[in-house]
Design goal:
Mean pLDDT of chain A: 93
Helix content of chain B: under 10%
Order of helices and strands of chain A: HHEEEEEEEEEEE
Largest sheet of chain B: 5 strands, antiparallel
Distance between the termini of chain A: 22 Å
Low-confidence stretches of chain A: none
Oligomer: heterodimer
Order of helices and strands of chain B: HHEEEEEEEEEEE
Radius of gyration of chain B: 23 Å
Low-confidence stretches of chain B: none
Radius of gyration of chain A: 23 Å
Number of strands of chain B: 11
Shape of chain B: rod-shaped
Chain lengths: ~190, ~180
Amino acid sequence: MAWTAPMTAVANTAFTAAQFNTHVRDNLLETAPAKATTEGSYFIGDGTNSIVERSWDFDFVEATASTSSTSFTDLGGSSGPTVTVTTGPRALVFLTANLFSQTTNGTAVMGFEVTGASSIAASDNNALAFESGDSAFITISQASVCVPLDNLTPGVNTFTSKYRGVASPPSGTCVFRRRRITVLPY
Amino acid sequence: MAWTAPMTAVANAIFTAAQFNTHVRDNLLETAPAKASTAGGYFVSTGTNSISERTASVAGVAASETTTSTSFTNLATTGPTVTLNTGTSALILITSNLSNNTNAAYAIVGVDISGATTLAPADADSLSFRQPVAPGTEQNPQHTWSRLFTGLTAGSNTFQLKYRVTAGTGTFNRRYLTVIPF
């Protein structure tokens, strides 16, 4: 069923069953309470006169893992975290981690790629990054970044965390733990 | 009132007042416009065929204050603190400018949850920064940590920032707490 612009009643004109079904029943079935199924979900415009229920999702990996790769990669023995959700063209992606480089002035980077309906490679533009200080006095940050996306292909999309160290200055071994990805689809 | 699956009208059948009240009046009262009360509010599902209006909230404390406590505590100015109605989940964002005057020591900002839910602050769910270099040359980043908390008890919940260090003296300013309930 789709939304129909509500009719205008006319005095002394019969209100038919068909009119009730179109303008009352079917329109009510397009409202949020009719579409609500999952506690904690929310409602998004899906186009003219159309709304859809969306649900957030997140994934968390506590384990400490590291990489010396200067291109985005999975962490050895501990891939992800990964989230699969149904989205429209937009989403907010939150990346959270405890991260550092063991090398003076090295930078640890946590990004993500999108697969499924969309194909978006991991990028420093959409990443959490932290430059550590002197290797004798290692700086560690536990923080987040929020990445707004507006170029998704609507449908089922999978968001997978990826990791790297910046090549220049050399980052050596970059360490990550308490890694979390949260996706709010729109 | 609760939502009732809208009836299907039948040609030549009488449409009664009771049917109107159940299928038109009471159902309309379950929709977003009927429940909207606050500018900036938004609507979430509270279960099958049920929605509720939620409102996000933010609180801040600009003052620069310190602690040497190694267990989570209040600073001279308590908070910031946010109290609002949530379902079983909420997105929490902790923002602060933070530093520590001792090499290799952490400054940590966690969140305490009370009210319908009881959850103590924890290092794993905190904004934190481990200080490098020698005292006197402290770095003081200003950044944010976030997490979608699930498993909350639905109802009125109070979120309050708490602070600790692993050693030395931690300094915290421009402290903000944002809560987006679902």
